[in-house]
Write a structure and sequence with these properties.
single chain; alpha+beta; 2 domains; 3-stranded antiparallel sheet; 3 helices; 3 strands
């Protein structure tokens, strides 16, 4: 158990083990250095920082600023006529 009373999981498998099994099978795998990452409890995926051990997800600063710009631009449009496309775009973002 961890300090918060939850179970900690430890696996004897790492990315090298997986690649050694997949290589003889001919299964393609992107090189970790160009696309992907090794196993860890703290990972960045789709613009979020996932902390698997603490069960939290944070929005990265780059994505935060992108969404902030988009919502501010939308707010400026609200004073004018807003298209369905604009509504769908901001809805998809949020």
């Amino acid at each position: 158990m961890d300090s918060q009373g939850g179970l900690q999981h430890h696996y004897s498998i790492d990315i090298t083990s997986i690649l050694s099994v997949m290589d003889p099978l001919g299964i393609l795998w992107h090189p970790i250095m160009t696309k992907g990452q090794d196993f860890a409890s703290l990972v960045v995926y789709v613009g979020f920082l996932w902390d698997l051990q603490c069960h939290t997800v944070l929005l990265l600063e780059k994505k935060h600023l992108k969404y902030l710009d988009k919502t501010q631009a939308f707010q400026a449009l609200v004073k004018l006529k807003v298209s369905r496309k604009d509504i769908l775009s901001i809805h998809g973002t949020l």
